[in-house]
Design a protein that fits this description.
Helix content: 25-40%
Strand content: 25-35%
Number of helices: 2
């Protein structure tokens, strides 16, 4: 009888350990399925370049949202000489939680050598 009780306790203990191990493995798999911020940046730049035919020069804003990720990406739209006259554009890029591009839009165009316009009230 005592031997049967010990066997049952041993099985219960093993099942508990397996459950905890399975839970940790599941947590690791979930963490692995979510891309890191750097992976999201690389994916966004690559996907935008594939869709627009223009290479991303930089990412000027990056944030995680409830739906996934939101970035503002700077691209070279038209190369000119001198380089300071090249036409640049900022694109708002949206990605889902897995890092897949769900939408983009151009939000502004500017010459590379020009700074943002001053706002009223500023010096």
């Amino acid at each position: 009888m005592s031997n049967t009780k010990n066997t049952q306790e041993s099985q219960d203990s093993q099942e508990s350990q397996n459950s905890r191990s399975s839970s940790r493995t599941s947590d690791k798999q979930t963490a692995k399925s979510r891309p890191s911020p750097m992976e999201v940046l690389r994916q966004a730049r690559g996907q935008l370049a594939e869709l627009t035919g223009m290479e991303a020069e930089s990412v000027s804003s990056f944030e995680q949202t409830e739906e996934g990720w939101a970035l503002e990406v700077e691209v070279l739209e038209l190369e000119r000489v001198p380089d300071t006259m090249s036409l640049m554009a900022s694109y708002q890029v949206e990605l889902d939680a897995e890092g897949q591009l769900t939408g983009y839009r151009r939000v502004r165009r500017y010459e590379r050598g020009r700074s943002d316009a001053r706002r009223s009230g500023g010096r």
